[in-house]
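Protocol step 4 of 6.
Sequence for Protein-arginine kinase (Jeotgalibacillus soli) entered exactly as in the expression construct, tag removed. Do not edit the line below.
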Amino acid sequence: MTLERFLSHAVSSWMSEEGPDSEIVLSSRIRLARNSRHHPFPTVFSAEEAVDVASVVKKSMEQIGESLEKLEMDELQGLQKRVLVEKHLISPNLAEDSTAAAVWLSDQEDISIMVNEEDHLRIQCLYPGLQLKEALEKANQIDDALEAHLDYAFDEQLGYLTTCPTNVGTGLRASVMMHLPGLMMTHQMNRIIPAIGQFGLVVRGIYGEGSEALGNIFQISNQITLGKSEEDIVEDLLRVVHQIIAQEKAAREALVQTSGIQLEDRVFRSYGILRYSRVIESKEAAKCLSDVRLGIDLGYIKDVPRSILNELMILTQPGFLQQYAGGFLRPFERDLRRAALIRERLEMDDLQDKGGTNL
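Step 5 output, structure tokens:
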């Protein structure tokens, strides 16, 4: 039962659900940056002031009508914090030794409110598929409830004041996580990325700024927060995302038409590696998972649910592997564990399909 229990908590509930355009868009995220008018910003506040901010936020959180659990960063072990980063529930910045830092999480883990990160508050809502408007509506609901009890740092001309000047205005960061193997295989991403920048958007890797696009997964988000409303920012992002979805679908169709048997071979070779390898590095695992996910979307593989691929993308990250193992693992040991975990997870799914019972 240990493995099952670990797997049942490994992936947030929202991630196991399907959403609009979920064959290409894995998730939608809205994040709002907010600060208290009566406290210095986190880059300059003292330890006592940080504790006071956390206390004020706690009192406000208890009055907004959301069922959220508070996790104190200084009470978590390094691996536990790394797992939260890998699940996109906290930022790497919050996982560092920040004074009086905490996160408030919903049971579904679709709501994450970070305290004393780069700003006093980072309100984050995560939804499956392409649901930016729904995520924005929920984030605004929480924001309004908190603002009824907190005096935000706000300027009539500039808008919400934030630690980083690039967030001043709405304080909004809207982003979508997209799986784009077709555009990568047809070598179109190098052309698309600069074009996206002309619309005030930025393309990053799976874990945001400075991270790699492992497994052909990219985050696309707004850069401009000043001079536009939250709704306009989301609409601009949606227009570009819809175009990228159309281009990715066209690229997949072209690959099937021109390289069908080679593409099918690539998919099943990757599936074989995942099913039978004994040692697998993170980059190879991400590449194979991307291929298999594409194979599922194209109908080549019919007996593997897409949700398993979502799980394995998270489960094969270093933090999860080490938490599952119960302690620090050297790189080669992680590669062994990664391969074993993937095999076990796929074998468990086979048992379920055949009406058997899981171990």
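Step 6, annotate. Confidence is low (pLDDT under 50) at residues 1-8.
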